[in-house]
Amino acid sequence: MESEQLFHRGYYRNSYNSITSASSDEELLDGAGVIMDFQTSEDDNLLDGDTAVGTHYTMTNGGSINSSTHLLDLLDEPIPGVGTYDDFHTIDWVREKCKDRERHRRINSKKKESAWEMTKSLYDAWSGWLVVTLTGLASGALAGLIDIAADWMTDLKEGICLSALWYNHEQCCWGSNETTFEERDKCPQWKTWAELIIGQAEGPGSYIMNYIMYIFWALGFAFLAVSLVKVFAPYACGSGIPEIKTILSGFIIRGYLGKWTLMIKTITLVLAVASGLSLGKEGPLVHVACCCGNIFSYLFPKYSTNEAKKREVLSAASAAGVSVAFGAPIGGVLFSLEEVSYYFPLKTLWRSFFAALVAAFVLRSINPFGNSRLVLFYVEYHTPWYLFELFPFILLGVFGGLWGAFFIRANIAWCRRRKSTRFGKYPVLEVIVVAAITAVIAFPNPYTRLNTSELIKELFTDCGPLESSSLCDYRNDMNASKIVDDIPDRPAGLGVYSAIWQLCLALIFKIIMTVFTFGIKVPSGLFIPSMAIGAIAGRIVGIAVEQLAYYHHDWFIFKEWCEVGADCITPGLYAMVGAAACLGGVTRMTVSLVVIVFELTGGLEYIVPLMAAVMTSKWVGDAFGREGIYEAHIRLNGYPFLDAKEEFTHTTLAADVMRPRRNDPPLAVLTQDNMTVDDIENMINETSYNGFPVIMSKESQRLVGFALRRDLTIAIESARKKQEGIVGSSRVCFAQHTPSLPAESPRPLKLRSILDMSPFTVTDHTPMEIVVDIFRKLGLRQCLVTHNGIVLGIITKKNILEHLEQVKQHVEPLAPPWHYNKKRYPPSYGPDGKPRPRFNNVQLNPIDEREETEEEVHLLNSTTL
């Protein structure tokens, strides 16, 4: 049903009337569960569709390609709507950059005319800084609100503060004089649900009542979250980062960054985190920040009318999102550069840095955690690491890589099953079932009952005299007057061994539940669950190494640097390294991840262990597949995303990928001045192509330019409304000068202003490796293929993605085009060891069928032209 809604909404634009109705940002539609299959859907499918019944011409003569220094021949009064894009289409980066240059030249040429024009010029120059400032302010404020609300609602599952209902558990006991050091979380002001309902604070009855209320609140929060998402803003589900990456690459998804999505995602993110599901709020905060950036960009014409410029704001917004998520402004900028941004010029780097700075400043001013820090689990270590510890750090990196590879495969398999079976039709039931299983299993274990951020904080924290956690229950025979930095390694007590057992169970629970939780129809981030899994594993390894060093300090690996009574091993550091390794294994981030974790700890001396673990996790994960979790979800959903990190090594030519192919209808083209309005409208109505090459005439096939379907329909409708004498028999002219017409002929329609006068072209023998690089680096929508000036076909972004997918799956090479013959390219030497005769670098004698060939080429058969 969701897929049908998506396609009925306009993903297929097969009619003339439907092309003009663009979707608005306020339309709410569930696209997260839609598989945009390249085999069945249209993105940039300009000439790959049903058989065109309209006007078609088979080109027979060559000609030179007409080029121009300007992308568009602009009129004094541009046609409203021309140059915009439909939903689920890719922007033309080159055209958008040219539009921005023309706008900039126009402003500069007028700024000396008057003081008002100078003011407008200054406003235009500063609008970029203004929009990122507003984005940073809004992101920091919303992040603080989400943090405070999530902490309060998480504690609401266990009890309530009678003295002030808006206080969470920790805040409720701050002002109490009856709190003891051992039981600092217990105070008369805080009442559990068992105390309020049955009047018992201890005993089996109290435990069962608290258990029931915990499950009740968890299910209530999860049900409310998924209901709000399903009814009001289906785009608010999930992490949002895969879609953000796709949007930043130039794809249009109307409503994904709209105000309804922002409001519902902010509310449901709090509910989802409070429900206790194995998810985090850090990833969705990037989506929230990008929604803020998108909304504020509409206040400034420089960004509201240019999709490429708007993506510069979204890159800065994603940096602000990570800045408030982890309290890491520099890490946020690097995350935007390394992970999500497709186009990242130098000025975007500066504005991203400024947006991250403003967002972090606002969050610090709000102080949501009450510790004067930007994150809950900020820690500082004072013990240096030693060379021997690189070995367990690398082992944690191996674990992180294995976890990442397992999670990506398992989660993608489950999400694919969800999309392809009836189970995916009941998202509310799925969320309720996952929340119920999570709550039932999580409550008995104190480490899974904790909020995931609080769990990471406890695992990161080093044991000192002020710590009462069971992880710090060592047999302590030291002098209590010693300061924190001098606490030596000690033998583990019963509390530590019990905690290790509980942590092992929590590790298994987190691994399993995270696989099934990521991708359900509520806001769900992956950063915190992955960090929690790594922190649990790291803390267990750290305690093991600590006890090994204590009981075997005379071993040669410890003898030189770990003396009796010295503080040698810091288990919290192992938890931090493990968290970074597991997050790196899932996302395949490297530089930005190290900087984020470094900013969390504030210790320069731990960069080397972090780098070793993160690089190891990436290498191990890449051994099982180069895709991170976000790239895997992009491919699963079928988004048209060309990954710049992906290498193309297949030896194919542009002629092997272009359309039309053999047995396809000929190329549908427009002529420069020989077609009427009715001819063009018929071609638009009877085909599903999104663009048409424009040629000189039927006789002379010289390329003039390229016209988009949407621009043609908008221009014709506008001309009929505003110009008198435009009828169906009016001649359409794409040339600079109107041809001479009989006196009784109706008024001609000039459409040169919508014509792309310099479409990108490649020859039929251009290697696909070069074509893919052109599409990646220039952000093209389509590219025309020529041979000696004759237009043979077209390559779209969709064709590129189809070809890359077939290469990955080792599918047989695509069928050759309709005007090509397939010939074998034999080795240089024959079976007898003698060189084969050659002519123009092509072997003349045929190949014996028993011989193996190294590659195949397609040679142009001149008789078909």
TrEMBL record:
One GO MF term: PDZ domain binding
GO cellular component: a single term: glutamatergic synapse
Residue ranges of every copy of the CBS domain listed in the record: 658-722, 755-814
SUPFAM superfamilies: CBS-domain pair, Clc chloride channel
Entry keywords, A to Z: Antiport, ATP-binding, CBS domain, Cell membrane, Chloride, Endosome, Glycoprotein, Ion transport, Lysosome, Membrane, Nucleotide-binding, Repeat, Transmembrane, Transmembrane helix, Transport
Disordered, as annotated region: 846-865
Domain of life of the native organism: Eukaryota
Gene3D superfamilies attached to this UniProt entry: 3.90.1280.20, Clc chloride channel
Stretches that traverse the bilayer: 126-150, 214-236, 256-277, 284-301, 313-337, 386-408, 428-447, 499-520, 532-553, 573-598
Alphabetical list of CDD domains matching this protein: CBS_pair_voltage-gated_CLC_euk_bac, ClC_3_like
Topological type in the membrane: Multi-pass membrane protein
Signal peptide feature range: none
GO BP field: adult locomotory behavior; negative regulation of cell volume; phagocytosis, engulfment; photoreceptor cell maintenance; positive regulation of reactive oxygen species biosynthetic process; synaptic transmission, GABAergic; synaptic transmission, glutamatergic; synaptic vesicle lumen acidification
Subcellular localization(s) per the UniProt record: Cell membrane; Early endosome membrane; Late endosome membrane; Lysosome membrane
Family of the protein in this entry: Belongs to the chloride channel (TC 2.A.49) family. ClC-3/CLCN3 subfamily.
Protein purpose: Strongly outwardly rectifying, electrogenic H(+)/Cl(-)exchanger which mediates the exchange of chloride ions against protons. The CLC channel family contains both chloride channels and proton-coupled anion transporters that exchange chloride or another anion for protons. The presence of conserved gating glutamate residues is typical for family members that function as antiporters.
Full protein name: Chloride channel protein
Species annotation: Vulpes vulpes (Red fox)
